[in-house]
Amino acid sequence: MESDRSEPLLPSGLNPQLQPTMATLSDRLPLNIAGRFFVDSSCIDCDQCRVEAPEFFARDGDSGTSYVMKQPVTPEEIAAVESAAANCATGSIGDENAG
Ligand code: SF4
After folding, report:
1. Cβ contacts of residue 25 below 8 Å, gap of 6+?
2. How far does the centroid of ligand 1 lie from the alpha carbon of residue 57, in Å?
3. Residue minimizing CA distance to atom 3 of ligand 1
4. Whose CA is nearest to atom 8 of ligand 1?
5. 79 membership: H or E segment, kind and range
6. Which option is the CATH number for 38-99: 1.20.120.520, 3.30.70.20, 3.40.630.10, 2.30.40.10?
7. For residues 98 and 25, is the Cβ–Cβ distance under 8 A?
8. Which of 37, 40, 56, 66 to mutate to test the pocket of ligand 1 (most atoms within 8 A of CB)?
9. How many angstroms separate the alpha carbon of residue 53 from the centre of ligand 1?
10. 23: which DSSP letter?
11. pLDDT tens digits, one per residue of 55-85
12. How far apart are CA 87 and CA 93, in angstroms?
């Protein structure tokens, strides 16, 4: 049976408007500590990353955004930050090492 959809689906079958975005290096917030992970200006201050990985993310009350306060070092720490990035609904957490 054929679908009557006029818009093609992405290979994943997901609506393109629901696809996560990627953090933009040029929008990296200045409060982020130097290093590979960063939060960009698209952060909506939802608190998710700070709850999930409080050792690495903090809130800036002036801008109402999160920022990376500590870069992960060990594989376990890196996995924690990568998980927080994957769970950020706005895709505001970036990794300069990501391809
Ligand atoms: S999870 Fe994403 S949008 Fe939410 S506070 Fe953290 S960086 Fe901002």
Report:
1. 38, 40, 94, 96
2. 9
3. 43
4. 43
5. helix 75-87
6. 3.30.70.20
7. no
8. 66
9. 11
10. -
11. 999 999 999 999 999 999 999 999 999 999 9
12. 9
